[in-house]
Design a protein that fits this description.
Layout: H1 6-9, H2 12-26, H3 33-42, E1 44-49, H4 55-68, E2 73-78, H5 79-82, E3 91-95, H6 102-113, E4 119-123, H7 129-133, E5 136-139, H8 152-169, H9 173-176, H10 180-189, H11 194-201, E6 205-210, H12 215-227, E7 230-235, E8 252-256, H13 260-274, E9 277-282, E10 289-292, H14 300-318
Parallel strand pairs: 1-2, 1-3, 3-4, 4-5, 6-7, 6-8, 8-9, 9-10
Helix pairs in contact: 2-8, 2-10, 3-8, 4-8, 10-14, 11-14, 12-14
Length: 338
């Protein structure tokens, strides 16, 4: 994606993707320090929301907490299911860019009615229902997005949650973030081999595989919204454990941050067995067609996400799609009171 070419910049979606670079550059991890101390005292954190407001932000935080051995149990669930749980001993964070998402409002209201004061909100708008139901609300600095597909807000939500886990784990997130914005920019604006774009654009279904940290799953959703293609997220080795029976040789599997010990199995089952194309996004070359990105250490998931956006924009444009105007998808999925 060319950040200065009118072919791209005429779309709000692309402009908001580029805004992500500044979001990363100016993010201040210290803004969540006080909340992190309160959450650490509780010891349990549930991250809830709908769609993009939950997938990457929550699952990235869970993976970080487990990888770092943080003394914090982090879980995630969609808001309706979360509302059926006993959350009396959890800190609950509800994310809704609009501040009006019905499911998120409902679960925070239920937590409030139970007398639990550890209620947090995360939104891009001021003076919302979410703020009324949360004991403390964090306002995203990225601003409201015009495109239906959320991008810069997803990244800032992820940074907020990661900063909380970092504080609890005793990490220096500011140090982890050094140079991250430059690497996100590189991944977002890298020139992608036209042959990769063509094969992905022609695929009936685009599968995403990789760690369960929200990156591949979020790109699965973005494929629907940006490229208007059918897609599926295949966690871990699910990719080679049965679904190959119904795969089409024209399909594509995009593997995020491939695990070296699994590469040969993917080649054997998917390339040799099904006859489809595997594309990798990672920091090293692989036996597959690979979109290389710079290594950002603990911030790699954000770089991989940006590279995936880059690919999907190129695919959408190759298909002649208006990136800002899906036919059915809405910015606010289910607005409270609507």
């Amino acid at each position: 994606m060319n950040a200065t070419d009118e072919r791209y910049t005429r779309f709000a979606l692309c402009r908001e993707m580029v805004d992500t670079i500044e979001v990363v550059e100016r993010f201040d991890p210290s803004r969540t320090d006080e909340a992190a101390r309160a959450i650490a005292d509780v010891g349990r954190l549930l991250l809830t929301g709908e769609g993009s407001s939950r997938i990457f932000p929550a699952k990235n935080a869970i993976r970080k907490a487990l990888t770092w051995g943080a003394h914090l149990w982090v879980a995630t669930e969609g808001s309706r299911q979360a509302a059926s749980y006993d959350l009396s001993e959890f800190a609950v964070f509800g994310a809704s860019n609009s501040g009006r998402t019905a499911e998120v409002i409902a679960v925070l209201r239920r937590v409030a009615e139970a007398g639990n004061p550890n209620r947090f909100g995360l939104t891009a708008n001021e003076d919302t229902l979410l703020e009324q139901e949360a004991a403390r609300t964090f306002l995203l600095t990225c601003g409201w997005e015009q495109a239906v597909a959320a991008t810069k807000s997803v990244v800032e939500q992820g940074l907020v949650y990661q900063s909380i886990v970092s504080h609890v784990a005793g990490r220096d997130m500011a140090g982890d973030m050094e140079g991250a914005a430059i690497r996100v920019h590189a991944a977002l604006t890298a020139e992608i081999d036209p042959r990769i774009v063509r094969v992905v654009a022609e695929a009936p279904t685009i599968y995403f595989a990789g760690y369960n940290d929200g990156v591949a799953e979020e790109l699965t959703l973005k494929t629907n919204e940006i490229a208007r293609k059918k897609s599926d997220f295949l966690e871990g080795t699910y990719t080679v454990h049965g679904i190959e029976e119904v795969m089409d040789p024209r399909d594509v599997v995009v593997v995020i941050d491939p695990i070296a010990s699994e590469v040969e199995k993917f080649r054997e089952v998917l390339v040799d067995g099904v006859g489809l194309t595997v594309v990798a996004i990672g920091i090293e070359d692989t036996p597959f067609a690979t979109i290389r990105v710079p290594d950002a250490g603990e911030m790699n998931p954000y770089v991989f996400l940006a590279a995936g956006w880059n690919l999907l924009v190129e695919v959408g444009l190759a298909l002649g799609i208006d990136l800002d105007k899906p036919e059915r998808a809405r910015k606010v999925g289910n607005e409270f009171g609507a």
